[in-house]
Specification:
alpha+beta, three-stranded antiparallel β-sheet, 12 helices, 13 strands, about 50% helix, disordered N terminus, disordered C terminus
Amino acid sequence: MISGTTSSGTAELDSGTRQRTRALVLFSLSGSLAPREPSLGSLVDRFDFGRFALHLKSSEAVLPVPVLVEDVAPGVLRLPHGDRGLALVSAEFAVLATPRGDITLVLDCEFAGRTAPGALAAWLADTCFDRDLITLGGRPLLDALGQRLALVEPLAFGQNVHQLVFPGGELREELLGVDTARQSVVLNEIVYRGRTATSEAPNLKSHGTALSAHGRGVSVHVGWAEHVENGLALVAIGMVSALAVLQRTRLAAFATMRANEQASASSPYEIRSLISQLSAGVNELQLDLAFGVEAYVDSLLIPEMVMEAFQSSLRDAFGIRDSLDNSARMVERLTSVISARSAALDAELSERDDRRDRTVSVLVAIATLIALPPTLLLAFFGVNATTVNPHRSVFDAHYLPAYLLAWVPFLVLAAIGYVRIIRTGRRSGPLLTTPVPVPAQRPPSGS
């Protein structure tokens, strides 16, 4: 990511002096994009994470993969309300895809000169609330990125945006100054994008020569070196991606519930197919919760105090932990309901089989009893009796009463047995009511 800090020495390895204000805007994108071959390099190899790189190297299989990284000229990027008086000197886009295919777009910008808090707050508001109107080279931003990625389906913005601000120059000195009242005012203006003011800066943590404050949508981190900034950005990327997965999982869980309630089938094969599809959908939800959320909401990726403090605080602001617990319980109950439906189907099919077996047993017993007339008929034709005319064929109508006596009971028995078997199969009726498509795996929007 864009570099703009200088280390202040080995005594303060994680602190730095930034000359230009840096702003990272993280957008969650809808759809799915399968991570490609790492032609752009891994996230750790491409961006500077300093001493955190050793931790991240061991967790590369979990990290998002860059599928598009591009520097753009400042004049090519256009916001709906202009630059708000800020001097944009560099901009970089990075499209990241997690192993589960969830997409996050990172816009990394730097501003030269004095960065007025009010102008910065307005710029943040534009990139958040009017993100659909951002253009790149005269085209909507996501259309331009989709063309570069050669996607089959268009990209779309998700619900979640988080913006990280790393003040530089005069803004940095103002925030690290001794005037705590002014510090609180500036932090509030930036964190709330100029729309809300409180008496104290939200979630403020001071680390001596550096400080951090954040709300749900904006984080301000002052006095950190570049590798710490990138580490904080990675933490925020994980939180934004996890929150997007949680929201999608919640909607998919409700859709699966409705499918379970409304779907219908007229045969055991169709019912088993339905249960199989429901189970596959629930399995996808469980995988999303495990590898799309839980993998990014603890401190295992970067076990460092600064990262853990920011991650824990941002996770609480997002409400991810409670949402994760609630979603996990919903998925568990869906699993229980589907298992109960499968058990009910097995019991119903077993009962049908038992009724059919009993019917067949009764029919066999009756057939054994009725077998006596044909036996007598065969014996009648086989003996040298005076009633058997040697000049008449066995198919002569003269013997029709004997044939009727022998075979009509068999025909009646066959008809009764067929009717009873059909009624036995239909007695319990369909287990469900009306057919509805079952949401299974997410359709890919990538190429």
